[in-house]
Specification:
- By secondary structure, the chain is mainly beta.
- It has no helices and twelve strands.
- Strands 2, 4, 5, 6, 10, 11 and 12 form a seven-stranded mixed beta sheet that branches. Strands 1, 3, 7, 8 and 9 form a five-stranded antiparallel beta sheet that branches.
- A hairpin with a 6-residue loop joins β5 and β6.
- The chain is globular, with a radius of gyration of 13 Å.
Amino acid sequence: VQLLASGGGLVQAGGSPRLSCAASGRTFSNYDMGWFRQAPGKEREIVAGIARSGGVTYYADSVKGRFTIPRDNVKNTGYLHMSSLKPEDTAVYYCSAGSFYGRTWSPDGMNYWGKGTEVTVSS
């Protein structure tokens, strides 16, 4: 499956941008989806994950209550709705698709990755 992430850019602290991840090539609803991010000089980390059916979600503690990860399997698109952004949210955000085996929310099962979209939060 090919993934195309969009929606990043320069955002002021407190802003509420929305990232999109458009999937093509295979049936999107067959895959769990995740959003990961990598800040300069840091390891890639999971931000949020959602099961293929949409019934189960996961959020990193750092974004819990501020981000949501809806998906629309009819439109073959996943989203990351961000709010109350902080400068520490500055990173390149990647969407991914695959399987979060046993709800481990690990990147190991993510077989497909988008190119990433950069989010820069100014204070």
